[in-house]
Design brief:
Distance between the termini: 45 Å
Helix content: 40-55%
Shape: globular
Radius of gyration: 17 Å
Number of strands: 8
Order of helices and strands: HHEHHHEEHHEEHEEE
Number of helices: 8
Length: about 180
């Protein structure tokens, strides 16, 4: 079921430069550019897939109850521990699920859009504006305009996500994204 949903979802995500999860090179290039002119910040999250909770996914996708019902129906709800204990999962999906990477990318891009709109003092921003500001989410490797970086970090924390301070670069001349590091 997860693979079937992913087969429909991933091509649609990849139509947009801000959520193209088939190519990490734009993140790397934006990190390089940010290291040169400080116009872009790079943000990395700690244990991102473990921290994308079901309530957060419901909040982000609640506008589309049919899609939400499908992705919730396809998720694993329980885990068997080595001790034999069965626990209920509060996270949306574990690593290995076909939906983990696409859904977390969509959740993080939604938070980026909210952060950019707040930084600009407007109600919403369009996909075209996000592209013009060179925003990107490739899983938990995020690229945001520097003017919105602190707002995005604040919102990520508000929604229960943890920014990896040692791998996030909002100021200075160093940037890192998707395994590439740049200094000036």
């Amino acid at each position: 079921a997860q693979q079937g949903i992913a087969e429909l979802l991933v091509p649609r995500l990849c139509r947009h430069s801000v959520t193209d999860i088939r190519d990490q090179t734009p993140n790397q290039e934006f990190a390089r550019l940010g290291s040169i002119d400080s116009s872009l910040a790079t943000i990395d999250l700690s244990e991102a897939s473990d921290r994308v909770s079901v309530p957060l996914v419901k909040r982000v996708f609640g506008y589309d109850p049919v899609f939400l019902d499908h992705i919730l129906a396809a998720r694993s709800t329980k885990a068997l521990l080595p001790s034999g204990e069965i626990i209920l999962l509060r996270k949306f999906a574990s690593m290995g699920s076909a939906l983990t990477f696409p859904i977390e990318t969509m959740v993080f891009m939604t938070i980026i859009a909210l952060g950019v709109s707040r930084a600009l003092g407007v109600a919403t921003v369009s996909l075209k504006q996000l592209e013009q500001y060179r925003c990107r989410a490739y899983g938990d490797d995020l690229i945001v305009p520097s003017f919105a970086a602190t707002e995005v970090v604040s919102l990520l924390s508000f929604f229960g996500l943890v920014v990896n301070q040692s791998k996030s670069f909002l100021e200075g001349s160093f940037r890192e994204s998707c395994g590439k590091e740049y200094f000036r």
